[in-house]
Structures are given as C-alpha cells and as structure tokens.
Write a structure and sequence with these properties.
The complex is a heterodimer of chains A (387) and B (293).
Chain A: H1 7-10, H2 15-41, E1 43-49, H3 56-75, E2 84-90, H4 95-108, E3 113-115, H5 120-133, E4 136-139, E5 154-156, H6 161-176, E6 180-186, H7 190-205, E7 209-216, H8 224-233, E8 237-241, H9 244-256, E9 263-265, H10 272-278, E10 286-289, H11 298-311, H12 317-336, H13 342-350, E11 355-357, E12 360-364, E13 370-371, E14 375-380, E15 383-386
Helix pairs in contact in A: 3-12, 4-5, 6-7, 9-10, 12-13
Chain B: H1 3-30, H2 37-53, H3 59-86, H4 92-114, E1 130-133, E2 136-139, H5 140-162, H6 164-174, H7 176-181, H8 186-211, H9 219-233, H10 238-258, H11 264-278
Antiparallel strand pairs in B: 1-2
Helix pairs in contact in B: 1-5, 1-8, 1-9, 1-10, 2-3, 2-4, 2-8, 2-9, 3-4, 3-8, 5-6, 5-8, 6-8, 9-10, 9-11, 10-11
Classes of the chains: A alpha/beta (387), B mainly alpha (293).
Chain lengths: 387, 293
Amino acid sequence: MDYNCNGAARRPSLAPIARTLLVILGLVAPLLAGLGTAAAQTIKIGAVLTLTGDVAAYGIAQMDALILARDMINEAGGVLGQPIELIIEDSRGDKNGAINAVSKLTSRDRVLAIVGPTLSAEMFAVGPVANRSRVTIMGISNTAVGIDEIGPWVFRNSLPEELVLPETVRRSHERLGYATAALLYANNDDFSKSGADTFREALAAHGVRIVATEAFQTGDTDFRAQLTKVASANPDVLVISSLYKEAALLLRQARQLGLTQPVIGGNGFNAPEFIEIAGEAGDGAIVGSPWFAGRDHPKVREFVAAYRARYGTEPNQFAAQAFDALYLFAEAIRIAQSTTNRQAFRDALASIKNFDGVTGIFTFDENGRPRMDANVLQVKDGAYVEF
Amino acid sequence: MPIQQLFNALTLGSTYSLVALGYTLVFGTLGVVNMAHGEVFMAAAFVGLWLTNTLGVPVGLALLGAVAAGCFLGVLLEWVALSPMRRHPEIATLATLISTMGFGILLQNLFLTFVGPESRTFATPFKEVAWHIGGLTVTAVDLLMIAVAVVIMIGLHLALSRTKLGKAIRAVAENRVAASLLGIDVKRINMAAVAVASGIGGAAGMLVGLAFAVHPTMGLPYGVKGLAIIVLGGMGSVPGAMAGGLLLALVEVLTIQFIAASWRDAAAFAVLFILLVVRPGGLFGRPFGQVRA
C-alpha cells in the first residue's frame, strides 16, 4: 500500500488493484496462450529411463542418445514442421517409479507417445498402464520374452533375446562344435533370467549338454565360488547371461582361475564398458548383437561421429536403440500426419516396415513384434569384429 | 571340495570383516549404526582409483590415500551428521540412523552426478599378478586383502587394549558421563572413533575396488553384509567382526559348492537367524555391545 502518509494517500487508489490485476494476468496469460498454441508448438514425447540406481549406466546412455536424436531431428526442421520436445522422467530402475512416471507423462504432460522404460521388469509393470491409457509405449532395451504380448499399445525396437541368442548359439556351434556347456546367469533380474532360459533351449536344440548351471545376483562382484565349481565340471564352453558389469568381472575371474574355454554371452556383453572392465579376459568372447558400431553404413558413421563428438565415447547398443527409437517415432508421426492423435500414431508406428536405422533394417510384423537380423560379433584386441 | 573354495572364502571373508570392523567400532563407541559407512567405502575407493589411474601412484600409497580419504569423510560425517544429533539424546538413535543415511545418499548421488554410474577398474599391473600352485589360484590382490585385514585387526586390537586413545575409546563406550568426569575429551574420542572406522572402511573400499570394480553403488551390498556381520559377531566386538565375516563368507561359499548359488543369501541369513536364536548377543557379544578389543 501507500506508505507516504499525507492526505492524498487516503484517497482510494487504483494502483494496487491494477498491480494485482497485472500480476494475475501475468500468471494466467501463458496458460491461456498455452491452450491455443502450446499443443501445436512442439511434439511432446515422453521418456521413462533408469537414471539413478544400480543400472543407471544404461538409462544415461539412452538419455544421451535421445537428446542427440532430438537435436538432430529438430536441426533438420523437426517433424511436420514442428520440433520434438522430450520430457524425460527417472524411473530409478523401480517398477513403482516407472508407473508414476508413465502416469505423469500421460495425464499431466499429455505426451503423444513414450519411449522406455529401461528394464524389462519395469515394462511388465507399466506396459498394462500405458495400454489402459491408450498411449503408445515403446521399449528400447526390453529384451525379455513376453513384452510383445502385453497389449496393442506396447512396442519395442529392441530385438528380443529369443531371436538373438539362438542365432549366436547356432553360429558359434557351427564353428566351434562344442558338446558340453556351463550356464552362468544372474537370477534376480528378468533380463538375465529370460536370457538363460533362451540359451538353455537353444543349447538343447543343438544337442549341447549343460554340465553345470550356476546362478549369481546382479550387483555381485565375487564369482569365484561358482567358477571353482564350474571348473570341476570342465565344460567345453561357458555361456553367460547377465548385465555387462557382472559379465566382465565374472570373465576376469574365470580366466584368472584358469578357465580358458570359449565364452558365449548374452546382450550384456554388448557394451564398450564390458571390454573396458574385462580387459584381456574379454578377448575372444562371442556375442549376438543388434548393434555393431563398425558397420559400414552412412547412418551408422554419422551417428557414431555425432555421439562421439558430443559425449566423448562410442555409443553402445542402448544408445543406438534409443537413437533409432526417436527416428521411428518421427517416421510414425510423418505417416500419421498428426502430432497429437495418439490412435493415429499407434497405427502408423505398427505399420512401419523396412525402416533403415543405425541398428539395421527394422520391421514390425503383423503382431507388432520387431524383426531384424542379429549380428554375431567377437571381441578381438578390445574391439568388436564380425565373428 | 576343492581347496580353492576355502581360499575363496578366506579372501571374501577378509573383505567382509574389514567392512564390518568399521561398523562395529562406531556402534561400540557411539551406540549408533552408521548407515553412511558403505558410501564412505565407495568414495574412498574412488579416491584410490583416481590416485592410481590418474596420478600413477603405486598401489600401496594409493591405499594410504584411500585410508586418509576415509578418515576425512569420517570427520565430516561426525561433524555434519552425528554430533548435531547428540544434542537431542531422546531422539538421537533414530535421528542418527536417518542423518547418516542422508549423508550416504548425498555422497552416492554426488558421485552418480559428477563421476557417472559406470564401473571403473584400476589400471595397474599389480591387479594381473597371480600364481597357480597345484590346483590353487592365488592373486596378489587376494594376498594384500588378507594381509591388510589381519594387520588392521591386530592393530585395532592392540590400539584398543594398549594405547591411551584406545583405552579412552573403551571408557567412552563403557560410560560416556563417567568418562567425561574423568577428564576424557568425549567429543574428541567420538571424532577419533568415527575417523578410524571410516579409514578402515576406506581401506576396504580400495581393496574391493582393486579386486573388482569401482562404481557409485558398490557400497550397498557390502553395507548390508557388514551390518549382518556385526549382528552375527556381536555388536561392538572386534574379534566378532572378523569371525563373523569369515563365517558368513564360508557359509556362502559352502552353499554355492554343495547346494546351489541361488540359495547363497538365504542360507547365509538362515545361519544368522539360528545363531541369534541360540546366542542373542552374537558370537562374541553381550546383549548391549560396547567396543571391546
């Protein structure tokens, strides 16, 4: 109010009222403007990623790649003349965290579609939620069996293990002709466990006898007790299904304990960090992968160079699949010719065939399942080469 | 059973014991469970990693650096999270549980943000040294681990029973009011106990990091095991922490060898449960533990 205590001040002044009105207007104006235009200004895409906690390394690679893809798409003029806006939420690697994030993205931010979540276990929790809300959710690193069956709004561009692992076993068996195997896997995460089941079936299909099965837990560091036991079973090959950290430490200890057999790994072997931690012990490891950074393709070279320029490291499989996911979404928006219609977006995404991405030629089959060729790679002198 | 398994248990047990010693010293002296211990362990491992990989310091010196980093964080912990709570004795036990947990979470998130979640490994030839004797594989890191554990345990035992500081720590553990009346500077003793415990934690962190890998969440599993061990060994007991660590590791390894690896934690905690039913104070414990040499 007016603190100048003279007679004039007692006169009812309009200034405070005007000021209040101005403030209110200032607060409301953006909202009003938003009603008319915000939805038309940017295309809102949500991302649910594990950015903190034990498996944060995956989510952060995915976030980096999504941001890179967003900037590259927007620099090229956006989609349908509009830039993409990414709204990134941290699931903390937790099912409840993922559910909260998806709820926030669908009802508060009103996103067109969602990328993520990082872990298969999280997808099993949030897939049904997205399906009920009728918003497309696309996993970029979910490889467990059963993801595609959750519902019509649930997709993934990550190649399921049930396609990659049998191909790895087939090609390695052809070349190495082993008769017995030891299977080592982490039994407390859906990804590693489902990978182990797929390996077991694929090995049985080729008549390979599993002479030792040893479990451990994601987060473990000392595997020598399990490996000592495996050593006495003396298998022809070691088959490992786990995330990269455990896989690398396990391999180091296996080599140290004198287990010199060839090693076949699941998707966890497929990260530059695996080679970094495993060091020499990683040499010779065989792994099936949807991603091969050395592939001779202009898109791959452009992506690897841009990622390296911005983040200083080579993109791993998680980054590559996240990068492809945003381009897949952009393609779906183009086909749907709408930046807001969730149903049109879903149908457009499901119709995508022969999409040429950095991870390869990608197709959704009639049931919405991803189809693409797997590469079988081998670690040689600290780099992945074709097996 | 291969002799390798017994050796595996011995090295694993040494790391467990080292982690547990830090818990037991703080609990025995201050009567609080230090929930930040696992994160101090992690942070010190990063300091050791940095000294080795970036500055090229030899492993032995890096270990001393990690111990110093642990001590420093211990002092900080006492100053920030422990001493302010002591002014409110009626809520101190629970409040310290939360304030130390907060300190730990903050530390972990600082590392996640500024260092990143990736696992890193020590780049030193020392790591690759291994001997094969008959069917037994022994690495230099294993031997260092066992040696450090033994030296620290004996050192701590002697320090607590022979030195003036050790006696003062035990006096404070026994009765804080009486100790202060006798002219012992209780504040200084509190600080010393947390610093020494955190320094031991730092040594454990560096050794575990050297043997395996360093990452911001590495403290968590060891923290849980460390807590279980001091309950198993007897709260506040130094020999209890050592014996408890070895026992836990032995049970784990035996379970993997003779039952199945997936039963490891279940078996370990079943043993813990049975032991607590039979001996509520733990292996070396009295029901309300105070630090003992």
